[in-house]
Design brief:
- With about 200 residues, the chain is an alpha+beta fold.
- It has 2 domains: about 10-80, 434 Repressor (Amino-terminal Domain) (Orthogonal Bundle); about 95-195, Jelly Rolls.
- Helix content is about 20%, strand content about 30%.
- The chain has 4 helices and 9 strands, in the order H-H-H-H-E-E-E-E-E-E-E-E-E.
- It has helices at about 15-30, 35-40, 45-50, 60-70, and strands at about 95-100, 105-115, 120-130, 145-150, 155, 160-165, 170-175, 180-185, 185-195.
- A hairpin with a 2-residue loop joins strand 5 (about 155) and strand 6.
- Helix 2 crosses helix 4.
- The longest helix is centred in the first third of the chain and has 15 residues, at about 15-30.
- The model is unreliable at about 1-10 and about 95-105 (pLDDT under 50).
Length: about 200
């Protein structure tokens, strides 16, 4: 069987690309559908349909969502043009992303992001500190890689738990329930990268 060429890959429709971008920026801002709805004055049902690419949102609606999220409107259309992403972040820099929606005061620093017509990834530098508040395990589509840079923690993935130390890495299907369950040191720092296929459900 011959490999598919780039021309054989069907590009998602415009509404799907814009919707996926809205969802990505909402999640990066740590907003739930209800939270974004309250800020933007757009119903949760409409936002959900936009994110799934089921409706063609007006520019007025998209502008309201962008303003509520705190992202430039043009970011919603970045995936609609052919491009090859390159992301460079100098040491000590990056965009701090507060996971407000989780209620855990969990701060990530985005240190890389790239997107192609069929796949995207985002990478973060994360530091967790004691006390580690009780939190649910995470589940989402895609693949994930983590590398511990300092500290020790117990990390659960599926039914298994791993005592991770500096230099340890783990790669997994992120549809498995996963997340830190115990910090063995006062502070734990790690690099994580999440990659996923581009689709209307991403």
């Amino acid at each position: 069987m011959e490999d598919s060429s780039p021309a054989d890959i069907k590009k998602p429709a415009l509404d799907q690309l814009v919707g996926a971008a809205v969802k990505t920026h909402r999640m990066l801002a740590g907003l739930t559908l209800a939270g974004l709805s309250e800020r933007a004055g757009v119903s949760t049902a409409m936002i959900s349909k936009i994110e799934r690419g089921q409706v063609s949102a007006s520019l007025t609606t998209l502008e309201a969502l962008a303003n509520a999220i705190g992202a430039p409107l043009i970011n919603f259309f970045a995936g609609t043009v052919e491009h090859s992403d390159v992301s460079f972040v100098a040491a000590g820099e990056g965009m701090t992303v507060q996971r407000l929606g989780s209620g855990f005061g969990h701060t990530y620093k985005m240190i890389g992001r790239a997107e192609a017509s069929h796949v995207s990834f985002e990478s973060f530098a994360v530091t967790l500190e004691q006390p580690l508040k009780p939190r649910p395990l995470y589940r989402h589509r895609g693949l994930e890689f983590m590398h511990i840079t300092s500290g020790e923690m117990v990390f659960q993935c599926g039914e298994a738990s791993y005592h991770m130390k500096p230099g340890d890495s783990i790669s997994f299907d992120s549809s498995n329930a996963h997340g830190p369950v115990e910090l063995k040191t006062d502070r734990v720092s790690f690099i994580t990268m999440v990659t996923k296929a581009q689709s209307s459900e991403a």
